[in-house]
Every structure is written in C-alpha cells, then in structure tokens.
What we know:
Number of helices of chain C: 6
GO molecular function (chain C): dimethylamine methyltransferase activity
Largest sheet of chain B: 5 strands, parallel
Shape of chain C: globular
InterPro entries (chain C): Dimeth_MeTrfase_MtbB (IPR012653)
Oligomer: heterotrimer
Helix content of chain B: 40-55%
Structural class of chain C: mainly alpha
Organism (chain C): Methanococcoides alaskense
Strand content of chain C: under 5%
Radius of gyration of chain C: 14 Å
Protein name (chain C): [dimethylamine--corrinoid protein] Co-methyltransferase
Strand order of the largest sheet of chain B: 3-4-5-6-9
Number of strands of chain C: 0
Number of helices of chain B: 11
Shape of chain B: globular
EC number (chain C): 2.1.1.249
Largest sheet of chain C: none
Amino acid sequence: MVFPHGCKGGCNTANEELFKTLSDAVVSCKKDDVIAAVGKAKGKAPAVELIDNGLAAGMNEVGVLFERGKLFLPHVMMAADAMSAGVELLQDELGGSEGASSKLGVIVNGTVEGDVHDIGKAIVSTMLQAAGFEVHDIGRDVPVQNFIDKIKETNADMVGLSALMTTTLQGQKEVIELLKENGLRDKVKVMVGGAPATDAWAKKCGADCYAENASEAVAKAKELLL
Amino acid sequence: MATEYFLRMGDGQKIFMTKEDIRADIEAGSADAADLGEIPAMSENEMDHMLDIITSPGRIVGVEPGLEVPVTHDIGAIRIDGDQGNSGVGIPASRLVGSMVHERAFGADTMELGHIDYSYKPVKPVISHECQTMEVCQQNMIIPMLYGAMPNMGLYYTPDGPFENPGDLMKAFKISEAQDSIFHAAEHGIRDMTWIMQKLQHVGSDGVNFDTIGAAGDGDMYASLNAIEALRKEFPGIYIEAGMAGELVLGMHGELEYDGTVLAGLWPHQQAPLVAKAGANIFGPVCNTNTSRTSAWNLGRSVTFTKAAVEASPIPCHADMGMGVGGIPMLETPPIDAVTRASKAMVEIAGVDGI
Amino acid sequence: MGMPISHIMASGMTGMRAAGDLVARMQFDKSMRIGEAKDFVAKKLGVSNADLSDEFVMREIREELDIGVITSVPGCAKGIAAKMNIEKLLGIDINCCDKFREITG
C-alpha cells in the first residue's frame, strides 16, 4: 500500500505512526475506529497536522483504492463520513486556524444540457465531496443558465462540466462562454470531463483542466484551488 | 538525431517519438495493467512485436494471412443511418439496407439490429416494430444477425426511471437506501431484457448482444448476468454476446454477487469466467483509452488486459475495439493507421478469437 | 465508418467474401474458440484453415454449396434459403430457419 504522507509541519517517527494510525482508520471505513484513533491522537500533535497528514491522507488512499477496484462507492462514503466525525472531534483544537477542517473550495458539478448521463458525474461529485470540497451537484441535462445561477448562489470557486456524448460536448463550451458574459470566468475555474472530452478539447473550449477519472478530478481540483 | 516514428495520442492527434520512447511507453502501459489486474505483463518478445507493429512504415497494417478472425458488429446499422451528430454518417437508409450494406459491402462476419436509442428499456414500447424489422432482416440476410442494445441501468433511476438515484442517495450518506435502489433497478432490468429477447427470439433472431455491460456499475453487470442466465435457460440455442463497458466493474453497490463472486472490482480476466458461467457464447473484454496517453501506452495496457482475459476465458473473446477502447483513439473518425495497428496487435499478441 | 472497414481489412475474415460468417456462426453456436471453429468449418468444407479467408477458394465453394455469395448472382440461394443450406453443411439449427419451417409446415 502506498502511504501518501506529505507530513506538513514537523514530522518525527512518533508522529508518523500517529498519522498512519489515523490514515489506516479512515481506510478501514469504520467510523468507530476513526473516532477511537482521533481520541488517542488528540493533543499529541497539532490538530491541523492530524487532519492533513492523518485523516486526509487516509481519504486520499481511499480514492486510490477506489480507482484500483479494491474499495467501492459505499466504502468511499463510509470513509468520508468517518473522516467528518474525526474532524468534528478536533474542532475545538482548531480554533481560528486554517486547516483541513475548513472546506477546500466550493464546486458546482453537473452534466450539460441535452445529456442525460448521470453516473460518472455522480461518482466525481462523491469523490470531491469525500475529499473535503463543498459540492453542489445540480444533476444532468442542466440548462446552461442553471450553472451560472448556481455558481452565483453558492459563490463557487470551480465548476465541473460533464458530457458523455460527442454531440453534447459543445455544451461545455456554452457554459464557459456564458461565464465570460457574466464576468465570472476569471473567478471560477472550469474542469471538463466525460468520455469524449480530452486535454485537447479542454484547451480548445477554454477550460482550465480536463480530468480522466474521479481520482484525477480530485487531484486537479486541489491543484487549481489550493 | 534519432529517427522518429509517427503514432497517435489517445485523442487521435499525430505525434512523433523515437523507438526507445515508444518501447518505454508500451512497457509502462503493460505494467499499469499488470499492476492493476495482478496479471502478467507482456513478455519482452511481445513488446518487441508490438513495437514492430507500431513503427511499421505502411499507413495500414494487417494480420499475417491465416490469422484472420471474425469481426462482430455492435450498434447495429446506426453507423449508417445515425444522424445525431455522433459517429453515424446520416445516410437515409432503412435498418435492413444498413445491415445488408454491412454484410455485402463491408464484408462483416456478423451483424446486429439495434434501435436509435440503443438501450434495452426503450425497446419495450416499440417491441413490435423491432420484431418486424428483425423478421425482414432474417429473411434477407445470411450472416448471423443478433439484436443488440445496452443494459444501461441509468435509465431506471430518477429522473428517467422509477427508482431513486443511487448517486444522490450516496451523497446524502444513505448507503443502504442507495444499494436497495440499485438492486431493485437491476431486478427490473433483468425482467425487461429477458422479455424483449423472448419476443425477438420468437421471430427468428439469432441471438442477443449485451453491449457495454457494467456502464452503470456492478448493478448493471448483475442484471446482465442474470438476464443471460434466464435467456440461456429458456432458449438453449440462442447466440449470446456479452461485451463490457470498461476494464473494471465499478462498485456502485459493492456487495452484489453472481455465483458467489462479488462483481464490484472485477477485471477482464475475472469477468470472462463469470460471463461464461451465466451462459454467454462470446465475451467482449474492454479496456478504455486514456486520451492523455500515447497509442503505444494504451495499446500496451489494452493488450495486456485482453490477453489475460483470453487466457482465463472458457469461451471465445471478441475484444471491443470501437471508438475509445482497445487501444483505439477516442475520436469519431479514428485514424486508420491507429485502428489497423491496434487490430493486428490484438489478434497477434493478445490472441483474441474475434473483434 | 472507417473503423469497421479498417478492422475488417486488417484482421477480419471478410464475411461472405470468404468463410467468416461460417466461422463466426460456430463460435456463437458451440462457443468454439477461434482455432476450433476454423478447424471445424475447414473440415466441413474440405479446405485448409488458411483457405477460409481466401476469396478465390471460397467463392467457388460458396457457389457450389449454395450457401450465399456476396455478389448478386441470379438464382443463388439468398436469405433463409442460404441459411438452410448452411444448417445442413454445419449440422446446426438456425432459429429463423426453424421459424420458417414452423410457418410453412
């Protein structure tokens, strides 16, 4: 198993073990295990580090295991639920500090108008949510204007545009054009995805990035927003 | 300066690379499949052979004479009369004409009838129309003629169907409710697919093609395998082809099983025996093309997955090699150089029984 | 359009131009792997496996056996008539032929 510790802040062997225990608890997808692990870890390292290097690292690992077919969507949600419970326990120690407890960013996600495909987009929404983003999934076959309205309503940092058919790919460009017309393009990052979307298409339609799958969507959202 | 050879990106764009770099990409693609599927990577000889195929100077390559395999067709005649802005070329022709064009002008080995939506669920209200078209096709055609469509369980969830959308339920942490919804949708899917094929078998269809199994995750595969089992039981002689949607069965439910095997997380070499057990005659392994990688990487990966499936399968394997799968670029007009190279590699290295 | 034609030209048995439909039919009818299906059909036709993709060899055989030829030859068996001859050649039942017999008694 890859152990994805970035170890922000001062890491030592004791902390490494602490972070690994937290990470493993999240990967186990069991809320009780995460709560117990956080209970033991609390006070032994700054809360922000426990979250970033322990709980969030575990959540990253869950994403990797999902892509590898070792964990499934229910596990991802159970792990996300468990992680939220762990973060909640550390809330009092976080105080005003910025860390993983604060949302990573607000993302509006939807499948463009004329395209009724939902499942891939729903998986991306779930993985983004599980990674700590505030996600507003506005469904499939979404009228262009609805993307703009939701972005304004939620003060979103990013919009995810899905299309599964070559025929509906153009809808992604239409949303980007309307973002420009509304003066929002500089403020809102745009990610495109779906079977016919490609890196070349992302460049051509003026998106900020293209994501091949749900894990990549999370990684690229972090790259763009953090 | 080292000689550079032309090949493609996964999106079809032409690129140039040295032999060494192409070989490295083949090896990396194969290693990725081997790592994910816990299967053997291609041997050195196989990778060298793939390198020779990719760097072959001709625009078009082909298998050695005597190694040809049947090419089965999906999406029916939609590629002739399809006019939705997709890969169909919009020629106003009946489906009989489209099918006969495949048989007599293209030299197809098998053909199938499919309707424009190409999902099973919408066939129900137009079943008489489909049956009559099948009858006319069977009266005029000689090559095996199946009925084909996608299980597409997504059509059973809100807002398109009666069951609550499991994606929404999952996001609301209603996990058991989401699993229930997937199971109930699958049960309806089994009933629909079986009923549709009962009608078509009664008018002389050779059989059925389940195309893009697993597109909606493990529930989709659960429904397809059970429909296959029911059809095999009722029609012992029916021709059944079962083609997948991707290399991995996504775990939307996570706990659905067939014959004691959890469906979520299965790779092609694990899917093949189950499909055979259910009663299919032909398995269609799939490996999706990564558009950000080269055709060398994609072909290395795809052949590795497919070869393992061919070896594990008790039934013939016809690799899915349409747009964006099997090492073919994701483009409505896939470059012929890339298609023929992928075709040759899949036959000569993966050892597929058909395409 | 280029994709199916490209596959057929690169790897296909070319259907009724040669013996691709017959090999495919045995794969479906008896779940035969490619080698077994080719052996079976070649034996029935009295040719080598390589001949199954040879248009020159198969053209004459298809006309002789009246199992359907790809070009429009007046008088040659077509549709169900050709498939009934294929049934006899391969020793299999084809669903639409069964239905035809049911209807015509």
